[in-house]
Amino acid sequence: MKVIIFGCGRLGAFLAQALSQKGEEVAVIDRDPRAFRLLGSHFQGKTVVGTGVDEDVLREAGIEQSDAFAAVTNGDKINIMSSLIAQEIYRVPNVIARIADPKMEEIYRELGLKTLCPTRLSSEMILHLLNNGQ
Length: 134
Hints:
It is a single chain. The chain has helices at residues 10-21, 55-61, 76-89, 102-110, 118-132, and strands at residues 2-6, 25-30, 46-49, 68-71, 94-98, 114-116. By secondary structure, it is an alpha/beta fold. The protein has one domain: NAD(P)-binding Rossmann-like Domain (Rossmann fold). The protein has a 6-stranded parallel β-sheet, sandwiched between helices. The mean pLDDT is 93.
């Protein structure tokens, strides 16, 4: 499987390492070349400096042959934009956008975009732990 990850913070780097260790072909996009240090020296994938809304950057990362695209930056709007580009223009089969705002997550889910909302997931887990006394 060929996967593009947009955003090389802690989440993006961890995800890229995990996929790479499983033998997947991974390309990571980030506008800050220093962010790639989080990948470590054993990362076998490709790194591309730029943003996930720049078509030249996306092509360099291999978007036209990608099976999956995950936008995991800290910015909801850029994650949504890059995910919609991957889904609608390049027809990447599996696209996921990290969305911090739970209200926006619902809107984009209704439009057919797969989303992950750490705010909602963390709140649900905390409530579960509080209610179960663990």
